[in-house]
C-alpha cells in the first residue's frame, strides 16, 4: 500500500510539475542544476531551521525542495538527456539531503536534552541509508530489492508530519514519528534482505549459480 501511495503521489505531482520542467528547459537550466539546487534547499530547511527547532518553516522548505526530485526527472525525460550520471547524482544528493534532515533533527533534540528521541533520529538516519544501499547493492548484483514499507517518500513524509505536529504544539509528536519510522526502517531492511536472499536461492535452484 505504501508503494502504491508513493507511486500515485509521484505520478500526480509529475503531471502538475511537468510544465515547470518545460519552463526550466526553455531557460536552458540543466536537470543536474535542479538536482543540486533542490539539495541546497533541503540543507537550508534542515540545518537553517530544523536544527533550531523551527519545524514548521523547516518542513515547508524541505517539502518544496524535494519537489525538484520530480522536476529533474521530468526535465531529463523531456530533453532526452536521461543518463547514468544524472541518476547517480540524484541518488547521491538524496543521501546528502536525508542525512541533513535527520542529522538536524537529532542535533536539536540533543540540545533539548531529549536524548532518546535524538537516538531515534540517528537510528532513522543510519537505517535510511542502509535501506537505500541495500537496493543499490542488489541492483549491482543483478537482483532487485524494490520492497519495503518505508521507502524515501514514506520516510520524509512521516518525519515531516512529526515536525509539523511538533511545530503546532505537541512536541512529543516528533518523538512518536521518529520511533515509528525507526521501527519501519528496520523492518524494510529485513524485507529487502529477505527478498534478495529469496531471489538468490531461486537462481541457485534454477542452475544459474549464486550471485557473486
Task: Give me a quick take on this structure.
By secondary structure, the protein is mostly helical. The chain has helices at residues 2-26, 31-49, 55-66, 68-79, 84-111, 115-140, 152-167, 172-205.
Sequence-ordered SSE layout with sheet pairings:
Elements: H1 2-26, H2 31-49, H3 55-66, H4 68-79, H5 84-111, H6 115-140, H7 152-167, H8 172-205
Helix pairs in contact: 1-4, 2-3, 2-4, 2-5, 3-7, 5-6, 6-8, 7-8
Please give a structural write-up.
With 212 residues, this protein is an all-alpha fold. The protein is 81% helix and 0% strand. It has eight helices and no strands. The protein has helices at 2-26, 31-49, 55-66, 68-79, 84-111, 115-140, 152-167, 172-205. Helix 1 (2-26) packs across helix 4 and helix 3 runs antiparallel to helix 7 (152-167). The longest helix has 34 residues, at 172-205. The model has no long low-confidence stretch (mean pLDDT 90).
